Amino acid sequence: MHITRRPLATTSVSWVSLLWPLLLFLLHPLPTAADCECGYSTTTTTSGGAESDIVFSELLESDFTRVDYFGDDYKGPQRWARQAFDKTASTARGPFGEAYVTGNARSDIIATTAKNSKISNNDNCGLQLVVGSKVVDGMVQNAEIATMGQDYFHGTYRVGLKVTDVPGTCTAFFWYFNDTQEIDIEFLSHEFNRTNNSYPVNLVLQTAQSRAAGYDASRSDTGTFQKRELPFDPTAGFHEYRIDFLADRVVFYADGTVLAAMAGDGIPSVGGNLLLSHWSNGNPGWSAGPPAADARSVVSYVKAYYNSSNATRGKEARSRCERAPAGARRCRDRGGFFSDPGSGGSDNGGGDNANGQGNNNGDGHRNAASPSVAMGRMGALALVVALGAAICIVGL
C-alpha cells in the first residue's frame, strides 16, 4: 500500500502560520511593574486652600477585609504588629489602667477573594479592634496595632474605618514619634449624640506645649487642637479619614473633604510610625467608660504614600527614578490600590519599595509579572507546542 506523504515544509507552514501570532505573544518578555518608578502622585491642600499635586516615593497598602495579616495562614512579610503592654492607672491618667491585648485585635475577612467585591456598611469585615466591658485586675482590655517600620515621614496616611457606637471608648488613627511629636484623629464615642446628629472628631497635634498642659492640647493655646463635626454618622458605616503630614502643615480630611489644617512649630520634624488604637481608661474628660458592652471599631484598610526619613531609602528612590526605563511614570492616585495589598504591602524598612500597578510580592521588590500571569503563559505555551507537534505528526 502506497502512502503519499505531504511535504513537511507545507505542513509546518500551515500550523506555524496559524499559531505564530500567539507564539509571538507568549514569547514576548513579560511586562514589568515599573510604571510607578518615579512615585505616587496625589492631590493635597495648600496653605492657601487650593489643591496641588504632590508626589511620594514609598507606599504601604493593607486590605484588612481580605487578608488576615496576623493569622497562621498568612505567609507574607509582616508589616504590622499587635501591641501587648500595660499602663497603670496613674500612667494612663484615668481611674483604670490600660491593658493592650493581642487577642483584642481580631481579623474577620470576607468570604470571597474577588478583587472587585465590596463590603457593605452593614458588614463588620476587617480588623476588629475591641475594648472589653470587663475590667481585669483594674485594667480595661484594649487593642492596638502599629507598623513595623518607623520611617514614615512626610506623606498622606489614610484609613477606612467604622467607629463603635458603644459609649465609653476612644478610637484613634495616628502618626507617632513620641509624646511631643504626634498627629491624632480621635473619636470619643460618648460624645456622639444621635438626637441632634452631632458626631464630633478630635484633631490633635501633640507638642511640647500640650505635654506641659498635662497632655491636653486643647489647653496649650497653640492651635494644635480642633474639634470638628462630621456630616455623617461614623458608626453607621465605613468612611475614609486622612492625615496629610507635610513639611509646613498637617491637613485632616474625612471622605476627601478638608476638616482642618494646622501649621507652626508643632509640625513633627522626624519620621515615625502609624498606629490604630481602641482604648478606654474611664477618664471622664476623654475616653469616659469603660463601655457597658464590648465595643468594636473596624478597620477596612490602611493606605500610606510617603517619603522615608531613612536617608538610604531616599537616595534609592531618586536613583530608582533616574534609572527607570522611558515608559516609567508617576502613578496617579485614583482611589484604588497601586499594589496587591494581599501581599502585605511594600513597607519593609529598606530596599526597593516603589511598586507599580501590577502585583507586589510583598518584600519591597517589583515582580516581572504576577505568578498567575507567568504560569498562565507557560501553560499556554506548552499547549501551543503540544498542538503544533500533534499537527506535525498527523501531517507526517
UniProtKB/TrEMBL annotation:
<feature type="compositionally biased region" description="Gly residues">
    <location>
        <begin position="342"/>
        <end position="353"/>
    </location>
</feature>
<feature type="domain" description="GH16">
    <location>
        <begin position="50"/>
        <end position="310"/>
    </location>
</feature>
<keyword id="KW-1133">Transmembrane helix</keyword>
<keyword id="KW-0812">Transmembrane</keyword>
<protein>
    <submittedName>
        <fullName>Glycoside hydrolase family 16 protein</fullName>
    </submittedName>
</protein>
<dbReference type="InterPro" id="IPR013320">
    <property type="entry name" value="ConA-like_dom_sf"/>
</dbReference>
<dbReference type="GO" id="GO:0016787">
    <property type="term" value="F:hydrolase activity"/>
</dbReference>
<keyword id="KW-0472">Membrane</keyword>
<feature type="transmembrane region" description="Helical">
    <location>
        <begin position="374"/>
        <end position="394"/>
    </location>
</feature>
<keyword id="KW-0378">Hydrolase</keyword>
<keyword id="KW-0732">Signal</keyword>
<feature type="region of interest" description="Disordered">
    <location>
        <begin position="332"/>
        <end position="370"/>
    </location>
</feature>
<dbReference type="InterPro" id="IPR000757">
    <property type="entry name" value="Beta-glucanase-like"/>
</dbReference>
<dbReference type="Pfam" id="PF00722">
    <property type="entry name" value="Glyco_hydro_16"/>
</dbReference>
<feature type="signal peptide">
    <location>
        <begin position="1"/>
        <end position="34"/>
    </location>
</feature>
